[in-house]
Design a protein that fits this description.
Strand order of the largest sheet: 14-16-18-20-22-23-25-27-29-33-31-32
CATH class of the domain at 301-422: Alpha Beta
Number of helices: 4
CATH superfamily of the domain at 301-422: Ribonuclease Inhibitor
Largest sheet: 12 strands, mixed
CATH topology of the domain at 301-422: Leucine-rich repeat, LRR (right-handed beta-alpha superhelix)
Strand content: 15-25%
Shape: rod-shaped
Radius of gyration: 30 Å
Number of strands: 33
Structural class: mainly beta
């Protein structure tokens, strides 16, 4: 090192421009002097492999070490209270990080794209992990989020494609897109504080087990869509609603167990659509509505709908080819369009007293259907459009006393009228 460079480095050290010293001298290791309280300015020091941070440091500036692509390890002292945005982003050689309990927040994109980061230890003390904080940490395999964390920002761990095991602490109350794209997740434990599961583990194609705690009241839309290796799920009795596409195309899902005393009220559109191994399900009492295409394409063989159900949505059991029998309770008032379309093994059905509306093509293409028996045969009318059907406007009064004639008419592809009873 020439004398000019030495003199310049000395001047920079005095001015605490440590990053410029590293760049000027192409250093691989650097020790920050004792007494320094704030760190900044190491951004894009691509030669730096190790930095020794003294215990006097209490703050790290935004993007302080961003782009230090050779940095392999970092020890954050106990006095630091926050890790700000971009602090270690793009540190592509960083392998492990321990977040001390003095830290309360991890900022947005703080460790984004640290592609070799395999181990993150977050001690109890952190309360918030902001959006994209660990996004793109593609080598991370295991993660435990402590109970102290009460907030995880959107996409905080998105794209962590090697993540297999996840424990979410009891401080979190809702989860949505925080783990989007973690396709190799296998085992998940969700903390007892979580009340709502949003678009949480959609497309996690290797997920085999997940424990949903009794604190959860809502399983949101797309929560477990296309979790292709998930074979069984237990829905706790605290859950009130299952959102649209929540378990759609979970191709190996064989067992859906609802705990006793279930509070479930609604199963929304496409919730279990095309679960191609789901042959049996017991829908709990209390469910009031089954949404559009909720069980379309499921190989259900028989099903008993619960007392209290009022609506069977459009295409709710469409293409359930193996369905041979179904029991509809008196509480049902509406069987919507295409509700049982294409149920080729359904042979007979009883329309109970409570039903006042049957949508077009409700039983179309049920080729083996032989009998449709109406408990109430008087004042049934046919109309040709949905608006008149909903409003129960002028229709053609129709005789429904002959069960075999009913079956022939309803399953015909040419017989797609709407029906209502006054």
């Amino acid at each position: 090192m020439g004398i000019f460079t030495k003199l310049k480095c000395k001047k920079l050290m005095k001015e605490q421009k440590f990053g410029e010293v590293v760049k000027l001298c192409n250093l691989t290791e650097f020790t920050i002097p004792d007494g320094v309280t704030s760190i900044y300015g190491f951004r894009n020091c691509s030669s730096l492999k190790f930095v020794n941070i003294p215990s006097s440091v209490t703050s790290i500036d935004s993007a302080a070490f961003s782009g230090c692509s050779s940095l392999t390890s970092i020890i954050i002292p106990d006095g630091v209270t926050s890790i700000p945005q971009y602090a270690f982003s793009e540190c592509s050689s960083l392998k492990e990080v321990k977040i001390p309990k003095s830290v309360t927040s991890i900022g947005a994109r703080a460790f984004e794209n640290c592609k070799n980061l395999k181990s993150i230890e977050i001690l109890n003390g952190v309360t918030s992990i902001e959006r994209w904080a660990f996004s793109g940490c593609t080598s991370l395999e295991n993660l435990v989020i402590p109970d102290s964390v009460t907030e995880i920002g959107s996409m905080a761990f998105s794209g962590c494609t090697s993540l297999k095991n996840l424990v979410i602490g009891n401080g979190i109350t809702s989860i949505n897109k925080e783990f989007h794209g973690c396709r190799n997740l296998e085992h998940v434990v969700i903390g007892n504080g979580v009340k709502s599961l949003g678009k949480l583990f959609a497309y996690c194609e290797n997920l085999t087990s997940v424990i949903i705690p009794n604190s959860v009241t809502e399983i949101g839309s797309f929560a477990f869509r296309e979790c292709e290796k998930l074979e069984s799920i237990t829905i706790p009795n605290s859950v009130i609603s299952i959102g649209s596409c929540a378990f759609a195309r979970c191709n190996r899902l064989k067992s859906v167990i609802f705990e006793k005393n279930s509070q479930l009220i609604s199963i929304d559109d496409e919730a279990f659509r095309w679960c191609s191994n789901l042959t049996n399900i017991t829908i709990p009492d209390g469910v009031r509505s089954i949404g559009e295409k909720a069980f379309q394409g499921c190989p259900l063989t028989n099903i008993v709908l619960p007392d209290g159900l009022t609506t069977i949505g459009k295409g709710a059991f469409e293409n359930c080819d193996l369905l041979t029998s179904i029991t509809i309770p008196d509480s049902v008032t509406c069987i919507d369009e295409c509700a049982f379309w294409g149920c080729n093994n359904l042979r007979s059905i009883i329309i109970p007293n409570g039903v006042t509306n049957i949508g077009a093509s409700a039983f179309e293409d049920c080729n083996k259907l032989q009998n449709i028996t109406f408990k109430k045969t008087d004042t049934w009318f046919r109309v040709f459009n949905r608006d008149d059907w909903i409003g129960k406007k002028s229709g053609k009064k129709t005789d429904v006393t002959n069960s075999s004639t009913n079956a022939m008419n309803f399953k015909s592809v040419y017989y797609d009228d709407y029906w209502f009873r006054l």
